[in-house]
């Protein structure tokens, strides 16, 4: 192990994005970040994950913030530490595939406005769905961090992930991220996977681990990955760390201090920042966004391989049908549905597609008697290439003899950017508005109307879609 134990570990802190997305419905406001941005910039992190994911949607839909303006403000204060974002490949930050011209423009504007590291992933691990965004990240000077969506199944072996990582490296990835969104990666598996990746990838390609602490294993996963030579790990400052979020930052910094893996971070610098975010967490709790439940260990994540958000969604669907007593049956059906459609990783949007179909199978009393449009779409190949071939009998029952596509789904899309631009001409103030509208349609439009009314002096409380927060 001596050759692995001679380098410090880098840390990406997720306090400004995934921490509050995972625990508090992405409701942290920009004014709650501003007081400590300069202090965060002095810590010595590899990067601060602060944009992308659900922050964009939340800014427009709930906070009446322009996400692009948030990014520009963050860049103003974060002069030393790269800003990192999460991007869903051809889906950008939405739930469908977008045309290549929109994808390229979105990446270009993200980097121009302040993003430095772009973590890009595809729900099915289909590299074809990452091509356009990865090329654009490199073209516009960003650091391209290509992620493998980690999951477990008979096809998702260490060899499968290493092969995928090498393919993404050959496509231009600077970093490879192991994206363990459901906290399914176990400590000794992490050691094995990281060891193999470090052996097979180029020495200059960094391996970055992202996990959660839902099942209570996150700290151990990080530690075993560090022993195996991982370059960077994701953590979140403790007021919004652990539970459904990332393992907390301070305990890891303390654990590694004085060892060959020492992060070089001074824990004293973290303390005033932690005190600030304790107050933010208290506000989120008072407003009903932060529940103590998100901090309790839920071993169901490992047993059913169902991410926390997906589990709450299943409970909600059954409650609406007055069938809460069927939860155990639905949880048992999820792995069956997943197997039938080729073992997709359970992450947006495949988690919702598989979960809803499992509910229908149980409630109908017959498997695939009722089938959603999205489930038919995943079988047809509309979301990309599945990790394994779906069950032919299930394909036959759900889509009959309909043709399945074998090419990249976005090849069917004509350029869309100019059309979006024409549609919002009345409200457009910056080119970035076109991209907000492209991805979030009516939600963005409501925000533009609110912004226009606010600028024209209309009481913000009366403006459409308006919610006003005291600063």
Residue-averaged pLDDT: 93
Give the terminus-to-terminus CA distance: 51 Å
Low-confidence stretches: 462-471
Say how many strands there are.
8
Indicate the structural class: alpha/beta
> What multimeric state do the chains show?
single chain
The biggest sheet amounts to: 8 strands, parallel, barrel
User: Share of helix among residues?
Assistant: 40-55%
| Number of helical stretches of at least 4 residues | 20
Q: What would the principal axes of the Cα set say about the shape?
A: globular
| Strand adjacency order, main sheet | 1-2-3-4-5-6-7-8
Characterization of this structure:
The protein has 20 helices and eight strands. With about 475 residues, the protein is α/β, with parallel strands linked by helices. The protein has an eight-stranded parallel barrel, surrounded by six helices. Helix 6 (about 100-110) runs parallel beside helix 7 (about 130-140) and helix 15 packs across helix 16 (about 350-365). It is globular.
Task: State the gist of this model.
The protein has 471 residues and is an alpha/beta fold.
Q: What is the fold's blueprint, element by element?
A:
Elements lengths: L9 E4 L4 H7 L5 H4 L3 H7 L3 E6 L2 H9 L3 H11 L5 E5 L12 H13 L2 E6 L10 H9 L3 E7 L8 H13 L4 E5 L7 H14 L5 E5 L7 H10 L4 E4 L13 H8 L10 H20 L13 H5 L3 H13 L6 H14 L9 H15 L8 H8 L11 H8 L17 H7 L7 H25 L16
Parallel strand pairs: 1-2, 1-8, 2-3, 3-4, 4-5, 5-6, 6-7, 7-8
């Amino acid at each position: 192990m001596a050759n692995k134990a001679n380098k410090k570990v880098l840390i990406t802190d997720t306090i400004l994005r995934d921490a509050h997305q995972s625990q508090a419905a992405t409701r942290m406001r920009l004014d709650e970040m501003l007081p400590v941005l300069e202090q965060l910039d002095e810590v010595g992190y590899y990067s601060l994950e602060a944009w992308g994911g659900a922050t964009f949607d939340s800014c427009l839909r709930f906070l009446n913030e322009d996400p692009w303006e948030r990014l520009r403000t963050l860049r103003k204060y974060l002069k030393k530490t790269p800003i990192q974002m999460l991007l869903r490949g051809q889906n950008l930050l939405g739930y469908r595939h977008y045309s290549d011209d929109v994808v390229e423009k979105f990446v270009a504007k993200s980097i121009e406005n302040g993003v430095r590291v772009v973590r890009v992933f595809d729900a099915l691990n289909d590299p074809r769905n990452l091509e356009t965004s990865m090329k654009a990240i490199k073209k516009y000077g960003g650091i391209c961090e290509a992620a493998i969506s980690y999951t477990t199944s008979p096809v998702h072996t260490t060899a499968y992930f290493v092969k995928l990582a090498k393919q993404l490296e050959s496509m231009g990835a600077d970093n490879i991220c192991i994206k363990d969104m459901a906290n399914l990666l176990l400590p000794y598996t992490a050691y094995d996977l990281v060891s193999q990746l470090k052996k097979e990838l180029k020495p200059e390609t960094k391996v970055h681990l992202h996990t959660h602490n839902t099942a209570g294993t996150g700290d151990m996963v990080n530690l075993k990955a560090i022993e195996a030579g991982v370059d960077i790990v994701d953590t979140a400052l403790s007021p919004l760390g652990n539970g459904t979020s990332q393992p907390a930052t301070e305990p890891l910094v303390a654990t590694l201090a004085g060892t060959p893996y020492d992060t070089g971070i001074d824990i004293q610098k973290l303390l005033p920042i932690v005190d600030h975010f304790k107050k933010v967490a208290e506000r989120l709790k008072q407003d009903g966004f932060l529940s103590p439940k998100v901090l309790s260990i839920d071993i169901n994540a490992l047993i059913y391989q169902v991410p926390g958000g997906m589990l709450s969604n299943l409970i909600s669907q059954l409650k609406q049908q007055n069938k809460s007593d069927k939860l155990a049956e639905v949880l048992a059906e999820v792995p069956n549905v997943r197997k039938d459609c080729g073992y997709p990783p359970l992450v947006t949007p495949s988690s919702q597609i598989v979960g809803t179909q499992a509910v229908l199978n149980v409630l109908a009393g017959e498997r695939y008697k009722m089938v959603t449009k999205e489930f038919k779409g995943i079988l047809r190949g509309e979301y990309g290439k599945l990790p394994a071939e779906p069950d032919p009998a299930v394909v036959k029952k759900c889509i009959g003899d309909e043709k399945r596509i074998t090419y990249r789904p976005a090849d069917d899309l004509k350029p869309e950017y100019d059309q979006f631009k024409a549609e919002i001409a009345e409200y457009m103030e910056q080119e970035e508005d076109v991209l907000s509208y492209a991805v979030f349609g009516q939600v963005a439009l409501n925000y533009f109307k609110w912004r226009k009314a606010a600028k024209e002096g209309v009481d913000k409380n009366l403006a459409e879609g308006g919610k006003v927060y005291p600063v």
